[in-house]
Amino acid sequence: MSAAAILDLGKIPSKVNPELQSERDCSSLTPYISEITAIVDGGRNNTEKRRQIERILFKDPLFRDCAIDSVYKPRDEMYARGVERSVRLFALKEEYNWTDEEFGIAVYVINHQYSLGLHTVMFIPALERLSTEQQKAKWLHLARNYQIIGTYAQTELGHGTNLQGLETIATYDATTEEFILNTPTVTSIKWWPGALGKSVNYAIILATLIIDGKKHGMHPFLTPLRSTEDHKPLPGVKVGDIGPKLTFNTVDNGYLILNNVRIPRENMLMKNAQVSREGHFTSRGPSKANYSAMILVRVTIVNWCSVILSNSSTITVRYSAVRRQSTLDSSSEKESKILDYQTQQYKVFPSLATAYALFFVSKTLKNRYLKTYAEIMKGNFKNLPEIHCQSAGMKALSAEMTVELLEISRQACGGHGYLAASALGDAVASAKALVTVEGENTVLYLQVARYLMKRFAAAVSGERLSGSTEYLCMDPIKYSCPINSPGDCMNVSLLCQVYRFRAYRMISKAARMLQRDIEGGKKQHKAMNDNLVQLVRAARAHLLYCMMVDYKESMNQLQISVPVSKALNNLLVFFTVFNIVKNAGDFLETESIGLPQMEWLKETEVKMLAEIRPDAVSLVDAFDIHDNTHGSVLGCYDGNVYERMLKSTQNEPLNQCDVHYSFHQHLKPFLQRNNTSKL
Amino acid sequence: MSAAAILDLGKIPSKVNPELQSERDCSSLTPYISEITAIVDGGRNNTEKRRQIERILFKDPLFRDCAIDSVYKPRDEMYARGVERSVRLFALKEEYNWTDEEFGIAVYVINHQYSLGLHTVMFIPALERLSTEQQKAKWLHLARNYQIIGTYAQTELGHGTNLQGLETIATYDATTEEFILNTPTVTSIKWWPGALGKSVNYAIILATLIIDGKKHGMHPFLTPLRSTEDHKPLPGVKVGDIGPKLTFNTVDNGYLILNNVRIPRENMLMKNAQVSREGHFTSRGPSKANYSAMILVRVTIVNWCSVILSNSSTITVRYSAVRRQSTLDSSSEKESKILDYQTQQYKVFPSLATAYALFFVSKTLKNRYLKTYAEIMKGNFKNLPEIHCQSAGMKALSAEMTVELLEISRQACGGHGYLAASALGDAVASAKALVTVEGENTVLYLQVARYLMKRFAAAVSGERLSGSTEYLCMDPIKYSCPINSPGDCMNVSLLCQVYRFRAYRMISKAARMLQRDIEGGKKQHKAMNDNLVQLVRAARAHLLYCMMVDYKESMNQLQISVPVSKALNNLLVFFTVFNIVKNAGDFLETESIGLPQMEWLKETEVKMLAEIRPDAVSLVDAFDIHDNTHGSVLGCYDGNVYERMLKSTQNEPLNQCDVHYSFHQHLKPFLQRNNTSKL
């Protein structure tokens, strides 16, 4: 077909691109793809359930282009569409009687492209967690029935990480039995909460409680912000959108200024603390359930990272199998698939392997969380610090890995990966948010590091440790590198020992440096600050070891066919080796391995690229991501990349007319200013 | 001032934020800032010239918000504004009689926020380079006088890197003395050229010349695309915008479909090859001047990377000096400046140091280019391969470093660094483009690697080398690590030896691996592909060594005061040490250093953070970047971060009314569907 014809039609060939078809025809994994899909979905029933939800959603034009249409729309329309989608989604939930889990699948299917997520993800759970039974009876029904729409407003312009620094205040007025809410300084203005700007009419406001001039800590106040009739901001409330972000622009993250806003005493959510009519304050201290909510969100982020990488790997691998450029063999007439270049594999496969790794890691972490949560519910808090450390750390490490690897694989798509229509830029931007939200990464690493320093001190003092830090009791003298031949580099159990020893040495080094500085006369806090960089390194080393163990053990529990086992094991080995080579300095420096081992590992690494290569397309097909979910012109199942790129230009506002108005307004007067004669 | 009052006024305090003022008061470098500014500008006269241009531009409202206003505008308006700015900029150039260099400064001052850059950056230079004298006489005047607006159209949907694969054809028709241009396949459609979509009326089209069915290689054809009267596409021309990109959305990168478009024979630009009336083809082969144009662009990109990092460091350092969060010392009442955290310094200072490093490196590279260019003009091509390799490699390494470090420093600004108004996301997106344009990074690394393999083979065969690869003649047996004490880690000359040896060993290893594979029976191309990852590593190692040497030597040539020398030297040492620690695995693996040295280097690294800390704000002030140029709410000279953030919300379209129309359209009907009673 000629180029002109294709563009006129905006037509996509009905057949799968032969480049992609040949990949599927040649991969021995192809017949087993559905087996992997079932693993990823958590069972064949779940796969069917997800596909059913996809069918429901994508028969509706409102959702069909959800992943990509926003790049062509001004913010204003983007938001309006996000609201429309929210409402439709809520209605579908009711119509099909979706469980919360099914609703979560629907959100994943539409790639989070809706505006009112905070209502279900934060507002309702917070109401459940923080309200008395009486309050629940009053408010939960309204929220679940969407008669009120709410969000959770904690972060302020000046404070995110340090919650103790929040400045919003709620002063009790016993004469009227009301709280008076104020954001008294510029830095106290609420800033960032999702859906706050234009959408919600209620918010749970975190504020410092003041009674008779005395501070009583932070508490949640359910506060009406807009009229439920005409949606106008209520008196004393100034609210708006904080402006565009790197992505998530369907969501109206907002600011909120409160100027003597009065709410009834009953609107303080009083599960954990009460204020009586007379202004008497009593507290049970914060509920452990609050912590566990935070932990669960972080565990969820690890999974989200896996989802982002699955999406993007689907795009980058398929495109790399379609794109041909230059030749590997100069005697060949045909250009080579870029996926056949070792360097391309080295940019694309780490993302693919990490997508699988984080899937398995998040599964294990979720199970561990559920186990610990059950213990906590029975009053056993023994494992709370451990799960807190694990979830915080894994969130940080996963998000960091995802941003880095995803960007490299985006770059591997060259210029076309720079187009918004590739959807890769947006994926990177989403991942970047995960570095900061729900605990800034470095802050989390340092929480892990502090935990490790405590555990290490306990180990040194002879305490027997359990859980992820058990190994800190080891006798390092007894370590000898277990990798004794190139073949050992394929043995993940042996490599885990290497990871463990590296972590031990990094942690003990950090402890030694701290001790040295303190013994040298530095104050504790100064010694701490002077070693933060090493402490973060130690935390990362520990977390990477934990990740390896969880990944390996989760894989071990699978009941799978031989071809699937082989393919997934290739990814496991590659991931394990890749992360040693990537952190080679640490491994050598800690003498966890020696120079010959490093040489073998690098050879194993590139060997594994070649092993993964034939199954690469099958391994992304197995994620079974709907084309409308990833939304990329480069990554569709049919591989008709170039035709889709051409078609996508029809969505560009600039192309809605042949001659843009700016020609008449600006360009023409200038071009013809000196000369009115024809050329 | 209360929060409510400030927002209502959208008022920015007239005083510098005391947090930033105290930094300036305390830095001993403050009195010497103008000395550094002069270095960066290339002399005090140039500083004055730049400021003069800033005054001219920023008294015009059209340019005042140029760096940031596009984030609030739909694509359509963004583009229109870019056209308007282009026209105004061209008019100012004429009005003030700016030289090309001064025009370049103006473009830098408005942060490239205009649409028609390709006309001056590519179209006119290409006309100059590729035209005969007769053609120049005809076309150059029209182009320089903006009577025609043009671009350079080379890249196609299916081909960027591999120019040999381009598919557009120009068939000579001797009967009419015309060329017939066609894009015969989907993949041949021109795709990416800047300003092609909506703006230009002419393009230099790269196409394969065909005469009587015989191909004669690629040549440039000056082709009218749109009517100079009404701007409508000419017959056979289908042209449009390719859709939004990660940034640069004021530019209408375009696609172009040519369907039997006829142009006169005289429109083939015939400096390097001619087609006579009768269709007789003669060629002088491509001009060396073509290569040198490509080299110059790459050299410019190294400088551009420095500019991007200067901009972003200005933002991240100032914000880090204003932002307080948590406390380092729990006994302190006041929260700590985040710039005082070692981890923050470790995220922000590498960008700052690299901004300076790349400034000096690009200066040296530019001088080397000019010297080689002068030689070439005299017919001496001896140093062409060397400068080709250097410029290609430095472009790749600089762009790679910039994307990576910039993103880390963006993350260091937490949530606020995720706001479009921070301007950091856009800076990262700009840097990402530089990885791909003007030679994809990996392709360039491999060009360098192939050059190195040749030079290494020459060295092994006893040839005496000169230039950057001279060291390949070394006898590795004679190397012993020159770092013999912690103090040696401050000695950049010694560290350069370490870099050199690492490069040598990485290169010799790659050569050995290739040789082994070929001797093992692999074909050349297979052996090559199986070692691409190591070849890229070797190229990087070589380039990093070259960068260190150029940086050090460029610094040595400065005539500067002691305080400036000390401050810049701190950055040099930090940069040198940082890049060893970052690549620790390589340095240890090649035995360029041992374990004790690595320990010392890591200690030096964090020590240097503390050395740089007091002067950090001065070091970014010295870039003297106008607030309107970086356009960030976080990075202004006055440090009134939070007030500017608040004010920026006034630009957000969603905030133009209290109640968004989507409430009435979508939300209200849903909220009230079950219940019409008031809450």
UniProtKB/TrEMBL annotation, chains A, B:
Protein localization: Peroxisome
Keywords: ATP-binding, FAD, Fatty acid metabolism, Flavoprotein, Lipid metabolism, Nucleotide-binding, Oxidoreductase, Peroxisome
InterPro entries reported in the protein's UniProt record: ACOX_C_alpha1, Acyl-CoA_ox_N, Acyl-CoA_Oxase/DH_mid-dom_sf, Acyl-CoA_oxidase, Acyl-CoA_oxidase_C, AcylCo_DH-like_C, AcylCoA_DH/ox_N_sf, AcylCoA_DH/oxidase_NM_dom_sf
Residues where FAD binds: 155, 194
Primary residence: other
Assigned GO CC terms: peroxisome
UniProt pathway: Lipid metabolism; peroxisomal fatty acid beta-oxidation
Residue stretches making up the Acyl-CoA oxidase C-terminal domain: 493-672
Pfam families xref list: ACOX, ACOX_C_alpha1, Acyl-CoA_ox_N
Example GO BP: fatty acid beta-oxidation using acyl-CoA oxidase
Domain Acyl-CoA oxidase C-alpha1: from-to ranges: 291-453
CC cofactor: FAD
Active-site residues annotated for this sequence: 438 (proton acceptor)
PANTHER family for the chain: ELECTRON TRANSPORT OXIDOREDUCTASE, PEROXISOMAL ACYL-COENZYME A OXIDASE 1
Protein name: Acyl-coenzyme A oxidase
Organism: Magallana gigas (Pacific oyster)
Lineage, broadest ranks: Eukaryota, Metazoa, Spiralia, Lophotrochozoa, Mollusca
